[in-house]
Amino acid sequence: MPVIALAQSIGRWGNFVNQEAYGSVTESLFKMRIYSEEVQDFIHVHPTFLYESVLDFCIFVMLMLLRKKRKFSGQILCLYFMLYGFGRALIEGLRTDSLMVGSLRVSQILSVLLCLGAFGVYFFVECCRPKDNHVD
User: Fold this and answer.
1) What average pLDDT does the chain have?
2) I need a labelling partner for 45 at 20 to 30 A (CA). Which of 31, 72, 82, 121 fits?
3) At what angle do helices 48-66 and 2-11 cross, to 10 degrees?
4) Can you name the residues that pair with 44 across neighbouring β-strands?
5) Helices and strands (DSSP H and E) totals, the chain
6) Per-domain residue ranges for the chain?
7) DSSP readout, 96-121?
């Protein structure tokens, strides 16, 4: 799982090259300048690809540090889904190109469900597993 997070971190830079997966207009410190066809001028937007790339790299580092200390099979997978789902739900709120169902962002809903599902599995396994078993 750690290498999946690293691959996602690197892959998000394709969004930069394509000028996609960016956020709303902003004047924050972490702004990115792109040309807007709508206003026929350059605008500053949230570089959500960068936010997600940094998030994924941080997840990679955390999972690499935790993988040798895992307590049960699937723990690193659950941690990945919890961390990625939580971070993606936050970042998705800044994006302007989200698939919407009414006023809800589909990716944001899926990310929250992913995070909550992994959280539930993690704690179910943690609470129900025999305490004397060791991971191979």
Assistant:
1) 92
2) 82
3) 160
4) 33
5) 5, 4
6) 2-128
7) SS--EETTEEHHHHHHHHHHHHHHHH
Q: 3-state class of 95 per DSSP?
A: strand
Which of 81, 83, 15 is CA-nearest to residue 53?
15
16: exposed, middle or buried (Cβ count in 10 Å: 0-12, 13-18, 19+) = middle
Q: Which of these, 123, 24, 18, lies nearest to 72 by C-alpha position?
A: 123
Beta bridge partners of 37: none
Say whether 36 sits in a helix, a strand or coil: strand
* Residue 118 confidence (pLDDT): 97
How far is CA 65 from its chain centroid? Answer: 18
> Can you say whether residue 102 is alpha, beta or left, with left for phi > 0 and alpha for psi between -120 and 50 degrees?
left
Q: How far apart, in whole angstroms, are the C-alpha atoms of residue 61 and residue 6?
A: 9
Q: How many CB atoms neighbour CB 33 within 10 A?
A: 9
